[in-house]
Design goal:
The protein has about 375 residues and is an alpha/beta fold. The protein has 15 helices and 13 strands. Helix 6 links the parallel strand 6 and strand 7 (about 155-160).
């Protein structure tokens, strides 16, 4: 293990999604290895509350917009007060405000990029990636590719996969007990989609694919239900679409849930028809517990899920291909079980929390060992 460090983590998000799960997984793992973490996040955010629950050092800082330079000033003094060794930036706004604060404080910084979309070549990004950060991490090879394509120096780009903590995925009861408590018959097939309900996540494609499958099913086929866990701006439109497709009891909108381990335990497969995806924590969670994944060949999702080994991948935005994949998995129990068995093996190949934390710890040590920043503003 490297020498203990004090790491400032900057995350500008007020909400909670897979990215924040990863930040906390990292901080808890680093704490277990003897490092000190200080989280700079918006006041009143779920992150602030979660950090206090976990007795992590948290410093609330309002980050209202990319030009809120008062936030950078506050963080600069906060970094100095906490005697920070380096700064880890976790979101786009954090890159700018936290990166500027790190530069003012004369501290090295790195950023983790989680989105599979192009990196704009505008002046702010040039400053971030050329002046503010010493390293840029993609959570999957496809994300690292976007960084390089956006003009980021390949020499500072590396990949550290997002990860999953198996210990946090233990269900509250057995699959049989949970299914019985939910009124599910033994042969009912449960499709699970877990996502923030935005257009990018493609839940509308899942609804249409389910409609196609139901139309093709034999009258004596087992019941099929799609459970959609999550909330977001697209929910009203998705509920309207489910009505238009006459899906009725075949779809349930569950809203935001805190019992993902139980939902995974009762499900038969995870649907992840994303139009774009940095990686997709739900896919990792599904593979970790032996659940096959039906997803799209996009970004890190198409790299983490191995087609025909841990899941079935189809082209994005292709309802017919998604429906065919779904029908195949519903009809072939042997295939579902074979794909599910390989999931935990795949997770061990680089997606465990221990592996992720160790990789960041090594990178931190490398950055700190490089010494002070030339021309830093103090």
């Amino acid at each position: 293990m490297s020498s203990p460090l004090t790491i400032a983590h900057v995350d500008s998000e007020k909400g909670w999604s897979g990215g924040q799960v990863q930040v906390f997984l990292l901080m808890e793992g680093l704490r277990a290895r003897g490092h000190r973490n200080v989280l700079f996040c918006p006041p009143g955010s779920r992150q602030e509350a979660r950090a206090r629950d976990l007795q992590l050092d948290v410093r609330p800082v309002a980050m209202r917009n990319d030009l809120h330079l008062a936030a950078s000033t506050r963080m600069k003094y906060g970094f100095r007060e906490c005697e920070v060794d380096l700064v880890h930036l976790h979101t786009g706004r954090a890159n700018w405000l936290g990166g500027l604060a790190a530069r003012w404080a004369g501290l090295p910084a790195l950023t983790t990029r989680r989105m599979d979309r192009s990196v704009g070549r505008h002046p702010m990004n040039r400053l971030v990636y050329r002046k503010f950060v010493q390293r840029a991490v993609g959570i999957a090879p496809a994300v690292s590719d976007r960084l390089r394509e956006g003009g980021v120096d390949p020499a500072i780009v590396s990949t550290i996969w997002s990860a999953v903590d198996r210990s946090a995925l233990q269900p509250s009861a057995s699959r049989e007990v949970l299914r019985e408590s939910l009124g599910l018959s033994n042969d009912c097939k449960v499709l699970l989609a877990a996502a923030h309900l935005t257009q990018r996540k493609g839940i509308d494609l899942a609804l249409r694919a389910l409609s196609h499958c139901l139309a093709e099913q034999q009258s004596d086929a087992p019941e099929v239900v799609l459970w959609i866990a999550g909330d977001g701006p697209e929910r009203p439109a998705l509920e309207k679409l489910a009505v238009e497709l006459k899906l009725g009891s075949h779809v349930r909108f569950l809203g935001r849930r805190e019992d993902m381990s139980d939902l995974l335990a009762v499900a038969d497969l995870l649907m992840m028809p994303s139009r774009a995806e940095g990686l997709g924590i739900a896919a990792l969670e599904a593979m970790a517990v032996g659940l096959p994944v039906l997803g799209c060949r996009v970004g890190g999702l198409g790299e983490a899920v191995v087609d025909e080994r841990t899941g079935v991948l189809v082209p994005p935005d292709d309802v017919d291909a998604l429906a065919k994949g779904l029908m195949r998995l519903l009809e072939d129990e042997h295939l579902r079980h074979a794909l599910g068995r390989e999931g935990p093996v795949r997770i061990d190949e680089g997606f465990t929390a221990t592996q992720m934390v160790a990789a960041y710890e090594s990178l931190y040590a490398e950055i700190v060992a490089a010494g002070a920043l030339p021309g830093a503003v103090r």
